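Example 286, ligand NDP.
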Amino acid sequence: MSVPTLPLNDGNHVPWIAFGTGTALYQQDATQAVRLAIDNGFTHLDGAQMYNNEETLGAGVVASGKSRSELFITTKLAKLQTGETAKTALQTSLKKLGIAQVDLYLIHVPRQHEGQLKQVWKDMEACKKEGLTKSIGVSNFQPAHLEEILEVATIPPAVNQIELHPYVWKSLQPVIAVHKEHGIITSSFGGLSPLFRAKGGPLDPVIEQIRARLEATRGKPVSDGQVLNKWMQQKGILVVTTSSKAERIREYVDTSNVPELTSEEVDLIEETGSQVHKKFFVSFFA
Ligand code: NDP
């Protein structure tokens, strides 16, 4: 089963769902997890220098037996060490990953480059021009960070990867407006937070109600995670998720086969999510 893609503003395409090697796999050996994800249908792997496991992400890719061209690999720039640039940092990543080029390279956290963001973005552009990455983007950027780099950008960011789920949806509207203006794809991490980081919130009965309707329409099981992932897929959001379980990985990839939510169901998720504000990745990234 092929994974649908989203068009990027630089002409490239990105598989709409990615398997992340941070959070649960942070600083862990990701080899088996990455192999499990690829074996069960993922084609997009999301890594980062900060996760400290790029070697094992690369090992998982090799173990899967897939060719490089069948996969989309993202990594992210960490805080620069003395004498380092985005380019030398990416060269180090490529060596660890065991590949010649990534598909997407993101600035991970704007706060790590205070006062240097414009220069770092120019260096990111050089990475793309020199073929070390096909596309470039950012993560955890707020409108002011985007506006800062857009002042000097000759290539706008293709993606901004941010904490995104219904309990932060309302607060994200200003940054999403900037994305729309510049054709930047909104990417979500922490998208399943309502199911386990914020269990017991007002969305629980809404998800249950929509899940039951979708299940009856489809005539086979639909999970709560698929309801949230379907909501994001319909909105053109690039989802970054993860799981240790083959069954759940297959469910994530199967989201494309879940019936569409109605516009009333989409509104209900957003309105109910907006009743409370619950952000989980704050201390480090704010
Ligand atoms: P999600 O919110 O999608 O959560 C995934 C986790 O949810 C898995 O560990 C899975 O556990 C668990 N899960 C799924 N369904 C359920 C359920 N029904 N009940 C209980 N638990 C469930 O994504 P993450 O927040 O984990 O982030 C995913 C990726 O995003 C990271 O690996 C990283 O690559 C990226 N990320 C990026 C950040 C950035 O700053 N750019 C910050 C944070 C993450 P199980 O193993 O049991 O299936």
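Summary: The beta strands are 5-7, 13-15, 17-20, 44-46, 72-77, 102-107, 133-139, 159-163, 185-189, 238-241.
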